[in-house]
């Protein structure tokens, strides 16, 4: 899946990990996305970063010091 930083901002998401949690929480069959699908985030034409899977992104949050850390929340069931 390819999305843009602008899309995330328009959706009121602070990060792609917020978007991953949103997708996992609002999963509705049939869903066009699979939990193992990767997400590529672009700023304009430039690839900023890649999340290896929606499921992984939903379990992480941005670390203020860089990178990602575990998101402490109730488990997300599929």
Describe the structure.
- By secondary structure, the protein is α+β, with helices and mostly antiparallel strands.
- The protein has one domain.
- The protein is built from 3 helices and 5 strands.
- The chain has a 3-stranded mixed beta sheet with strand order 1-2-3.
- The longest helix has 10 residues, at 16-25.
Measured on Cα atoms, how large is the radius of gyration? 12 Å
**Shape estimate:** globular
Physical arrangement of strands within the biggest beta sheet: 1-2-3
Topology, number of strands? 5
Number of domains: 1
Largest sheet: 3 strands, mixed
Give a quick summary of the entry:
Helices cover 27% and strands 26% of the residues. It has 78 residues and is α+β, with helices and mostly antiparallel strands.
Properties at a glance:
about 80 residues; 3-stranded mixed sheet; about 25% helix; globular; alpha+beta; 3 helices
How do the helices and strands line up, and which of them pair or pack?
Blueprint: E1 2-4, H1 5-10, H2 16-25, E2 39-43, E3 46-51, H3 54-58, E4 60-62, E5 68-70
Parallel strand pairs: 1-2
Antiparallel strand pairs: 2-3, 4-5
């Amino acid at each position: 899946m390819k999305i843009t930083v602008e899309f995330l901002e328009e959706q009121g998401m602070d990060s792609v990990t917020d978007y991953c949690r949103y997708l996992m929480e609002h999963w509705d069959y049939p869903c066009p996305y699979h939990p193992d699908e990767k997400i590529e985030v672009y700023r304009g034409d430039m690839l900023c970063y890649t999340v290896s899977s929606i499921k992984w992104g939903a379990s992480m949050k941005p670390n203020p010091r860089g990178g990602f850390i575990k998101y402490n929340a109730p488990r997300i069931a599929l």
